[in-house]
Write a structure and sequence with these properties.
The protein is an alpha/beta fold. It contains 6 helices and 8 strands; from the N terminus they run E-E-E-H-E-H-H-E-E-H-E-H-E-H. Strands 1-2-4-3-5-8-6-7 form an 8-stranded mixed beta sheet, with helices on both faces. A hairpin with a 5-residue loop joins strand 1 and strand 2. Helix 1 packs across helix 6. The longest helix has 18 residues. The chain starts with a strand and ends with a helix.
Length: about 220
């Protein structure tokens, strides 16, 4: 069971649902809005596990928490990095550095924001104006950040023990981090989880992140 409201949803090309879930204080008065996103890439599934594990428990929050457990359900079902159109969603955002790339696993689409998943996420950013965004990826076991998120990255690094990396080490034109963090100045964390981690260990390492965003941030 998931203890969260379905705030919004859309269907993908293959008819799978993408859900935006919400948890907020009973009073409806909240300090900040935090957005957490799992499964940007269909072959990186552990973010969804962490989100659903957290939402399976009733916990208090002073903030409005928004969750997309799985942004790329088509890719998840196919076990591919890309979505059903063969697009890497993390290269499909309308940034100043977006470029038409080769059609490989990093293909950024035929145009910026060409994908329904990207359009849905842009809509959410514009409507809810989050104060912090965390995306859950794999497999580098680091805390990467874009925009004014140095302090948030430090807190998450202290919780997880994962080291902070300001650069992931390779170009990412059209990335979500550039779109939100660099160009819109929203603190944006890319939390790279370890690959093939045992689920209980993964949860025990990362569970206090949810306490942090619900109670401390």
């Amino acid at each position: 069971m998931i203890f969260a409201e379905i705030e919004s949803k859309i269907n993908t090309k293959n008819g799978n649902e993408i859900l935006l879930l919400k948890r907020e204080p009973e009073s409806k008065n909240y300090d900040k809005t935090i957005l957490v996103i799992g499964v940007f890439h269909g072959d990186e599934k552990d973010g969804e596990y962490l989100i659903n594990r957290y939402l399976s428990q009733k916990n208090e929050t002073k903030n409005r928490l928004l969750f997309i457990p799985c942004l790329n359900p088509d890719g998840k079902k196919a076990d591919t990095r890309t979505n059903a159109n063969g697009v890497d969603l993390n290269r499909n955002f309308p940034t100043k550095n977006w470029e038409l790339s080769d059609k490989n696993e990093y293909f950024g689409g035929t145009a910026p924001a060409s994908e329904v998943e990207t359009q849905f996420l842009i809509y959410i950013i514009e409507k809810y104006v989050p104060d912090l965004i965390i995306t859950l990826h794999e497999p580098y076991c680091v805390v990467n950040y874009d925009g004014p998120a140095k302090e948030e990255a430090k807190q998450i690094s202290e919780i997880t023990g994962y080291k902070i990396e300001e650069s992931i080490g390779y170009p990412t034109p059209g990335s979500f981090g550039t779109y939100c963090g660099i160009e819109r100045k929203i603190p944006t964390i890319t939390l790279e989880l370890p690959e093939n981690s045992e689920k209980e260990n993964l949860w025990n390492t990362n569970k206090k992140i949810f306490t942090y965003i619900a109670e401390s941030y």
